[in-house]
Amino acid sequence: MSKPTKQIHLAAHFPGVNNTTVWSDPASGSHIDFASFVHFAQTAERGKFDFMFLAEGLRLREQGGAIYDLDVVGRPDTFTVLAALAAVTDRLGLTGTINSTFNEPYEVARQFASLDHLSDGRAAWNVVTSWDAFTGENFRRGGFLPEHQRYERAESFLAAAHTLFDSWRGDEIIADKATGVFLSDPTAGEFSYHNDHFDISGRFNVPRSPQGRPVIFQAGDSDHGREFAAAAADAIFSRHGTLEAGQQFFADVKGRLAKYGRRHSDLLILPAATFVLGDTDAEAADIAHEVRLAQVSPATAIKFLEQLWNRDLSDHDPDGPLPSVDPVVGENTIAKGRASVRMYRDPIATANEWRAKAEAENLTTRELIIEVTGRQNFIGSPTTVAEQIDHLVQSDASDGFILVPHVTPGGLDPFVDKVVPLLQERGVFRTEYEGTTLRDHLDLAHPDRGAEPAAATG
Q: Could you tell me the pTM of the whole model?
């Protein structure tokens, strides 16, 4: 019996907090002007995407004691942007990254429940943690948390939020023409949650939202992160976008679900993916090369080099070989701010791997940095890219992709105009939205309704 064809899930990532955007491109626009968010979201909705993904930066990143000049300066508040986008979109899911290390369950649950009401059931929460004491200095409870404590807090944070969401059943509010609105259940909204991380009780003041709870995303790749996703997330934002790595990650995370009483379809694997389109594969390859050169200028290459070497390399020649000295092991004193620091568990081993690759392939420092700091997942004509995406999803390397264009906000338009119709012709992507909520789009069970039993697949 042949394996059933999987439907592809597509989403769009408004970048901002990364180095993928080509700032020098004339088409590149503002990351603060609301018009940019509107254009991006409405393009994604025109393409019938599941959702738009908005990252978050809680502090301006620094390198060498100065503001990190390779990143966007400024990031509007996530909830404010998503709430505004709810008014200019009708079906697109609205996913926001909100940190569990520096926030409180009551305020975050209240904000997401409100967003779910405002959007008629399209809210999603990407639950992240932060180890970064530098970012923590912005908060009353700043400082360092070891990895296991970060995830313990995140798990407890999410459980507390679920307690708040579930404190309303959804049928407690009754409108009486004579006496006004009243509660049929006087205990509606009452909650109590106590452990080593949170000691809270009271009454949650936002009634049950259209999805019951927002869709939960998780983005960690460590063993703790994978386990957290298997236990509590609806989707995981992965960095494994190639066939072999994707299949290994897919099998590993989905294989953890059974012990939590969950099925393969209860958790979606959605890697981030970049793309470059051309009329032909050769033209796309040429464009992709130019994009990478723009993304990793000589100055950028040195910045990335310093993040691993943990020392000032401003005098290093980006067109020469890698430094002969070894990285400084220990606290990174060059780069500050989590997203700006690429985490290397063994900097010296990584440096030696880079040296071996550079020697074997005769690469300069800049050429090496271009190779190791990022890759373009899909390069080719629209037909080629559609085939690549479909192959990876049908091969269980993912359930779909979160697309990150290198031009904002208009970089998504060519994909929607040229690739989406080809996926629709192949019968693997919707031509119209069939439901109204994000859970509908992702084919996830509603927490109030449950799901019919089904055999695990994938």
A: 0.90
